[in-house]
Amino acid sequence: MQQRTHKETLKRIAFILVLLLCATPFINAPIALVLGFLFSCFIGHPYAHLNHKATNWLLKIAVVGLGFGMNFYSAIQVGEKGLKLTFFSICAIIILGIILGKVLKINPKTTHLVSSGTAICGGSAIAAIAPVVEASEKDMSVALGTVFALNSIALILFPVIGHALSLSQYQFGLWSAIAIQDTSSVVGAASAYGKEALGIATTVKLARALWIIPVALISIVVFKSKNKKVNIPWFIGLFILAMLLNTFLPFPVIVTHSIRKASESVLVVTLFLIGAGLSVEKIKAVGWKPLALGIALWVFISVSSLFVIIHL
Q: How many beta carbons lie within 10 A of that of residue 158, not counting itself?
């Protein structure tokens, strides 16, 4: 018993040390995600019961903090350019998801959750839409597992592809915001690519996240749900407020720079925790059909949006 307690103590100390390492400039977002996954696989997550709540709050804090490094007028211009692409990509993914879901004979609710998560903003969209379609815990777990697995791959793969194709900061920021599902992975991939890409990706991605509301309302009608409560991502409002404060109030540069750098560190720590929350067992539990659906939708939006963005 004492030996087990000693091992648990060492595991916790090791976890905290790696967590602190991820908060330093030596570790970037993709490496942090891989470190978290490897730690979970080979050592085990000592705080697994707190992981979801911690990543949820840390991501919101990081995103709001990034708003202090952005200009409101620049964000509006970027948002306008990405609006049409966002709208058409969401419609295309959901329609294609319905068709592929029927071909693969996947539960309609699981299909809808995977499609919505891919189309809008990953786990946040799934968490918001699952209650309004009265999805089971299994439907939600399968959809989350599918999206998180693909997010992890995208976070590592997208910067490599971006550099290989010599994408500009603007092109990569817009592409990652459209083609990567979860906000944390979008911001993580963009931060690894460059400062300008990060600003563009964050703005377009959060504008895309607002589509949770109309998609959730349509879902209530389509699935004839009795639960009409929609969880709105209110932290986006705080992000906009941070941009407004940074644009119109004379904050010293050292203050906004410090907030931005701290937010980037918080984001890297968040991605370590997301990686630590993944496991081989969770990925296997998804099943091949939902995973095939998720991969097909992800490849479609990645390739098609990249083609459009390159030719803009």
A: 26
